[in-house]
Write a structure and sequence with these properties.
The complex is a heterodimer of chains A (305) and B (283).
Chain A lengths: L11 H8 L1 H28 L2 E2 L8 E2 L3 H7 L2 H32 L6 H16 L2 H11 L5 H8 L11 H28 L5 H8 L4 H12 L1 H16 L3 H7 L10 H10 L3 H32 L1
Helix pairs in contact in A: 2-14, 3-14, 4-8, 4-11, 5-8, 6-12, 8-11, 8-12, 11-14, 13-14
Chain B lengths: L4 H28 L4 H6 L12 H6 L1 E2 L2 E2 H32 L6 H11 L4 H14 L9 H7 L7 H13 L2 H9 L4 H29 L3 H6 L8 H10 L5 H21 L1 H14 L1
The chains are: A mainly alpha (305), B mainly alpha (283).
Chain lengths: 305, 283
């Protein structure tokens, strides 16, 4: 937008502000929130990670990459990174496959519309429930003498140490997170279902395609946009997992669920802000990196088509 | 397409079982709140109370010396305040970005917002604490720090923002162009043309924002000086960290926290589910 009587760009700001002051007024609050409470704390968090800070408000001491070097020498950090990646590698496919299956079932024509709505509500309700509530309740279910072990007893299986053995604890958290989030991924798939051209199925039926072939060659490729979207969401979601390990396992047993977010938070609680923010920044860079790689792979795939 | 009776039955069965697992925790907390602690521990598989008692409910009437109404009021203030702020900021901001995205400074704001979605929200709270302290938004009975922090992209503002962005992008641009030719100013344009068609998406954004901010606890715990600004969810975290966990009180408090959001969701389910899907698809 260049106006003829004001070609010099240094006048642009003033001219634009004068002409569109209403729009600047409109964006004001959003800008204030995004900058002061969004990007500024983010940048200062990255900034802190280069300082030795025991208290943020007193004089901080610049240590360069010191916190990062300390971090990379810390075996608990590598362990924490390992369990975070493990949890993500378990949870992402688990959630996406479960959501894909649920969406297909909910889309089945044989069920009545009332039943379909009730099933949909049941699947989605955990997503709107506050995360602390679901974590607290599931924690009781998996306690040594809780619901799960009573169920096993009924089936004649010896009780399991759900929350006190490392391998099982991470599975329990993956299950609780599945219960909580699968509804969102399912709804996003279902929205995508509505966009599929129904005449493709009719044509395929006349050509004699069976149910599986139609699913494989029509439904799945049509769900590609929702799949990509859910994949990105799920990776970001599970890399940042925090609440369940804070409420259910406290990072244990023996650091088996000491996810990066939780580990950074525990550093923060010990007033080790430099290390806490270094872990947070590391996680941030990791997430951005994964998102970028995802976008690049997707672009490459689209080119090859 | 033909449907097979046996397959239909199987689909009903599988979906019924999954739905039961999804709903069971809610039934457990509701009925558990009317049981004694002993009954919850000794009979983990029975759902209905053998003897209905209200000791759990009586127990949560006073939490850490304050009546439960105090925490309920704080939940309403924090969720309500943050909802108002989020809806106000994202609707006007989203509109301004749609109307003239190339104005100086606008892209900086949008990029700032998108970037802050990626940073682990939990750890954004460390610098936020410092900012809130410096801006004097921290102290006994001061909700502002909590409300501002909860209204950013890291917590509640992401979905409403994308919801509005999608909606504005779907508006026919001719509608706006013809009004500018008629000589309408920017303010008139917004008020007369955009606001009247904005109501449905406005309601959806309000609902989603309220549902997501009702259960916030981490910003509340970290940005509160004391219990004067604790909400129900923060108290549940507190109750849970106590050494001797009182199960019937936990069940009663969980029910109290869940009931409002579950009821609001059931009444407005269509709007909420469609809205969340629509807001996510662009995110």
């Amino acid at each position: 937008m260049k106006s003829p009587d004001n070609p010099a760009s240094r006048f642009k700001w003033g001219a634009m502000l004068k002409k569109y002051w209403v729009l600047y007024l409109f964006i004001g609050l959003f800008g204030l929130l995004s900058v002061i409470f969004g990007v500024y704390p983010m940048l200062s968090s990255i900034f802190y990670s280069f300082f030795k800070t025991n208290t943020v408000l007193t004089q901080p001491e610049f240590v360069g990459f010191g916190n990062y070097i300390k971090l990379f020498q810390d075996s608990y950090f590598w362990d924490s990174l390992r369990v975070t990646l493990l949890f993500t590698v378990i949870s992402v496919p688990l959630n996406l496959i479960a959501a894909l299956a649920l969406a297909q079932l909910l889309n089945y024509r044989g069920i009545s519309s009332v039943a379909r709505l009730l099933f949909k509500l049941a699947v989605f309700i955990p997503f709107i429930t506050p995360d602390v509530v679901s974590a607290v309740v599931w924690k009781q279910f998996f306690n040594s003498n809780g619901t799960m072990n009573s169920l096993l007893k009924l089936a004649g299986i010896p009780p399991q140490r759900w929350l006190t053995s490392g391998g099982l604890a991470i599975m329990v958290l993956a299950f609780v997170e599945l219960w909580k989030h699968v509804g969102l991924y399912t709804i996003i798939f279902l929205t995508n279902y509505q966009l599929i051209d129904q005449s493709m199925y009719e044509a395929a039926t006349t050509d004699g395609a069976n149910g599986w072939q139609m699913y494989r060659y029509i439904t799945l490729p049509s769900l590609h946009p929702a799949l990509m979207l859910n994949l990105v969401y799920a990776v970001i979601q599970f890399m940042k997992t925090y609440t369940v390990s804070r409420i259910i396992t406290f990072g244990g047993p023996n650091y088996a669920t000491n996810f990066l977010s939780y580990y950074a938070y525990s550093k923060y609680e010990k007033m080790d802000f430099g290390m806490a923010t270094a872990i947070a920044t590391f996680l941030f860079v990791l997430i951005i990196g994964m998102t970028l790689v995802g976008t690049m792979v997707r672009r490459r795939l689209n080119e090859n088509k | 397409m033909k449907t097979n009776k046996a397959v239909t039955l199987l689909v009903y069965l599988v979906l019924g079982m999954i739905s039961f697992i999804m709903i069971y925790p809610f039934l457990w907390m509701l009925f558990g709140s009317f049981k004694t602690n002993q009954e919850i521990i000794q009979h983990p598989l029975s759902l209905f109370p053998k003897r209905w008692v209200t000791s759990g409910w009586k127990g949560i009437m006073i939490l850490s010396g304050n009546p439960i109404g105090h925490y309920f009021k704080n939940s309403v203030i924090i969720a309500g305040g943050s909802t108002l702020l989020v809806v106000f900021a994202t609707s006007l901001g989203g509109y301004a970005l749609y109307r003239k995205s190339n104005l100086p400074g606008f892209s900086v704001i949008e990029t700032s917002f998108t970037l802050s979605l990626m940073y682990p929200a939990v750890l954004l709270l460390i610098p936020l604490y410092v900012i809130v302290l410096q801006l004097k938004l921290y102290g006994t009975g001061n909700y502002w720090g909590i409300i501002f922090a909860s209204s950013t992209g890291a917590w509640g503002a992401a979905l409403p923002f994308f919801l509005f962005k999608n909606f504005f992008q779907s508006l026919p641009y001719d509608l706006i162009e013809s009004a500018t030719l008629d000589g309408a100013g920017e303010f008139q344009l917004f008020y007369k043309i955009v606001v009247p068609v904005m109501y449905p998406v406005f309601t959806t954004a309000t609902l989603i924002s309220f549902l997501s901010s009702w259960g916030l606890w981490l910003p509340v715990l970290m940005l509160s000086r004391d219990m004067s600004t604790y909400n129900l969810a923060a108290m549940l975290v507190n109750l849970n960290s106590d050494l001797g966990v009182d199960l019937s009180m936990t069940a009663a408090l969980s029910t109290t926290i869940s009931l409002p959001v579950v009821l609001i969701f059931l009444i407005t389910q269509r709007k909420v589910m469609e809205g969340i899907a629509a807001g996510s698809v662009k995110g």
